[in-house]
What does this fold into?
Amino acid sequence: MLLAMAPLAPRAQETPVTPVPTTLRPGDSSSRKITVPPILSNYRNRDVDTQLVVETITDTVLVTLIDNGTIDEDTISLIVNGKVAHANVGLNANLKFFWIGMVKGQRNQIIMYAENLGKMPPNTALMRVYHSGKTEWLYASSDYNKSFGLILDHRILDLPSQLIVQPVETAKSTRQASALD
It folds into this structure.
């Protein structure tokens, strides 16, 4: 028996879609995707001068800032993965502390964006980044043409099963289990 197939209707013009970069975390199903944070070379019409790229295993890093040199009323904002995390921070002789969460398994970018130039341009700060048991010391400088940037490349540790600590069964719990048998 022969079956006759109806001719296919012409397809409507498809517009190309640029996919948003996504990734899967280990153990995730394909239905749970997370958006990969963008690494910016330009933020608000200013170039980003990336001074450091470092690997980290820490899920949250501590960043401290203090005005470097003359205290001249510098004001900055910290941009994390393209979003303002801390706005209009005045730099002075007192340390400022910022806890910044990492997107696990991805590259994370921190930008120091100059909101003003203080009394003496450019905005300069001594930045310390505490992560993975290490301290990075950075001299950060931003002005109206460029912003300081750093990238923390987060790595997820894949520990062999031999290193994962299992609870130890005590003699008491063994006796209780055998009494129930």
